[in-house]
Design a protein that fits this description.
This protein has helices spanning about 10-15, 110-115, 130-145; strands at about 25-30, 35-40, 55-60, 65-75, 80-85, 90-95, 100-105, 150-155, 160-165, 170. It is α+β, with helices and mostly antiparallel strands.
């Protein structure tokens, strides 16, 4: 928890603001021997007044923790927009439906190149749904032919209504 790391600026600030619930490190022990370890490192300074995770590290069997993920970009609603996994590949998530649901996941392209292909930027798709939304997101598929693009549509109180995979196959 943040108060377990005195002297680390970001965690000191979190503690002063009574943000004490986030788990910073977690260890699993078996008969007193460490089996696994995980650490979430938070951003400094806070983004949009929120303390957000910047990197995640894990280890097993007492080994040195290794970076397994890095969150590169958040939007104004604290949604993850761009991240890089352990494999070094950049992934983007485009949020729609008033920034509540992911409408596209793009592997192999950065957030700036993806959003440049969306008519009216990400703000322009927030009120779109169904075919209109898929049409706006189609520019990503055609504009980034080497990226893996998966798109999603939703219906209020129902959930996911369609998934279109990187091969342009639609499941409803």
């Amino acid at each position: 928890y943040p108060n377990d790391f005195p002297g680390v600026t970001v965690y000191d600030e979190m503690t002063v603001k009574n943000i004490i619930a986030p788990v910073i490190t977690a260890k699993s022990l078996n008969s007193g021997v460490e089996v696994s370890f995980a650490r979430s490192n938070y951003t400094q300074p806070p983004v949009n007044n929120n303390y957000l995770i910047s990197t995640i590290e894990k280890s097993e069997a007492g080994n040195t923790p290794e970076l397994i993920g890095e969150i590169l970009t958040y939007d104004a609603n604290s949604n993850i927009c761009e991240y890089r996994g352990k494999d070094g590949v950049t992934n983007c998530i485009i949020w729609g439906y008033n920034y509540m649901y992911p409408v596209a996941k793009i592997t192999g392209a950065n957030y700036a190149s993806v959003t440049a292909l969306i008519p009216g930027d990400v703000a322009g798709i927030q009120s779109l749904d169904g075919t209109a939304l898929l049409g706006a997101l189609h520019n990503i598929r055609t504009g980034l032919p080497d990226a893996i693009v998966t798109t999603y549509t939703y219906k209020h109180l129902t959930g996911v209504t369609s998934i279109t995979d990187h091969g342009n196959r639609k499941t409803t």
